[in-house]
Amino acid sequence: LLVSAKVHARLALLQGSPFEVSLGDPEAALPLASNAWVLLQSIPAGALPGVRMREATYRVEEALGSTLAALGRGDEATEHYERMIALGTELDQELPRTNDWRWSSQARGEFCNLLTLLHRFDRAHEELPYLLGDPYLLITTNSDDLRRLEYTARARWGQGVYFRAGTGELNLALDFYRQ
Questions:
Q1: Residue 152 DSSP code
Q2: Which of 2, 54, 136, 152 maximizes the CB count within 10 A of its CB?
């Protein structure tokens, strides 16, 4: 059941995520994400270690949030991303990632994407210090590590979006876009 839930969650993201390359069909993604949730809830309590359940729940929350965002149901998606952040914070301690951004940073980054779509720039700006505090962030772009460069670019781009759209400070926005 756990593997099936994770597969359904990943298929939902591939089918209709607005935040990554997908087939662009959120209507088809919603039943997949919903099935992932049902499968996850079908696992008997205590049948698996808590950390494995939290990781799978994180993935399903991501699929549901992304799908609802793509369907224009931002308020519902917000609830899933907020739960994803809480789970990510726990996973940062229990299942730390090596050579990747923190679980909580991934959740906050995706939540910032949603908040930007909803034009809630001040709320997205509140999440940026967490992203900029992730040790995966590069201090300079003098690196061959493409994953870390991508993460750094996303975080800096988020700052630029805030200053461009949220405050109208175009010079500050350009500084962050250049970084």
A1: H
A2: 152
